[in-house]
Amino acid sequence: MDAASNNSVDDMRSLVDQVRYVPQKGKYKVYIIDEVHMLTTQAFNAFLKTLEEPPKHAIFILATTEKHKIIPTILSRCQIFDFNRIQIQDISQHLEYISKEEGVDYETEALRLIATKADGALRDALSIYDLIVTFSAGKKVTYQETINNLHVLDYDYYFKVTDSLLKESISKALLIFDEILKKGFDGHNFLVGLSEHLRDLMVCKDADTVVLLQVSDTAKARYVEQAAESPFSFLLSALNICNQADLSYKTSKNQRLHVELVLMKLAKLPHAISLAAVASDDAKKKLNK
User: Domains in the chain, please, with CATH?
Assistant: First the structure.
């Protein structure tokens, strides 16, 4: 039963009436109520008596992604099993298995991107995978076709933008951003993606936290290489600027200029940090005198 579309008292009473009948075959009748948090309070109350004293042949499975919305009187009468999101690596490996079984050629980076977009849901990953295979030329899943079909910005752009920022090249950063906009991507999505990229670079600054990076080995090597060239102070300050820009993006009257100003500030960060370091050294020398 889908509680999202059958959430009234009458729907619940109808279910309770069905529970009374013993199964014609087998020992148990199993009732699965999906999206149970969508039931109204009145529907929950109508269900409570049956849940308190269920018939011996009835088993209820209440499925939800928002457990906190279920009233306490219902929760207290249930055994609770929490299921975690499936890891990107596990989804990617399962897609590799399916590809081999179905004779589909694939690029590992493409499968990992599908796994990332699925956000821990294997069903969503399989739906996306099926879509990519259907629209691809031949039975092949390539990274380029995947980012085109899913309208995802190639992470190579973030590497290019970061390189230009570290070299303090405002013009190059603005030209890359213009190219991204011409491809039909939203400025806000770019800003969020750049923040995630900077976060991933910061993670790569420490060998112990590199495991938090959910990318392929090839991409991981690029992240580690760029992280080595990026000062920690730059990454931290850049993340702070991007976060503030993300919060104020919706209220900006000129959203393109809003992102461009962020890129200009980021491009001048290395210079500002070096000046601050020099000023700090001068202050220490004066104190020592």
Answer: 9-75 (3.40.50.300), 88-150 (1.10.8.60), 156-276 (1.20.272.10)
CB atoms within 10 A of CB 134: 9
Residue 203 vs residues 39, 111, 271: alpha-carbon distances, Å: 42, 23, 23
Residue 174, Cβ neighbours under 10 Å: how many?
A: 17
Across-strand partners of 105?
A: 140
- The alpha carbon of residue 29 and the mean position of all alpha carbons in its chain are separated, in whole angstroms, by 37
What pLDDT digit, counting tens, does each position of 52-84 carry? 888 889 999 999 888 888 888 888 888 899 888
* pTM summary value: 0.71
DSSP 235: H
Q: What is the pLDDT of residues 148-157, one digit of tens each?
A: 888 888 889 9
Q: Is 140 helix (H, G, I), strand (E, B) or coil?
A: strand
Residue range 145-182, pLDDT digits in tens: 888 888 888 889 999 999 999 999 999 999 999 999 99
What are the backbone dihedrals phi and psi of residue 215, each rounded to the nearest 5 degrees, phi first?
Answer: -135, 175
How far is it, in rounded angstroms, from Cα 262 to Cα 241?
7
Exposed / middle / buried, residue 101 (Cβ in 10 Å: 0-12, 13-18, 19+): exposed
Task: Return the closest-CA partner of residue 113 out of 85, 150, 162, 158.
Answer: 150
* Chain centroid offset of residue 164 CA: 27
Residues 63, 112, 172, 226, CA torsion sign: positive
Distance of alpha carbon 109 from alpha carbon 14, whole angstroms = 49
User: Model confidence at 91, in pLDDT bands (50, 70, 90)?
Assistant: very high
Rounded Cα gap, residues 141 and 111, in angstroms: 8
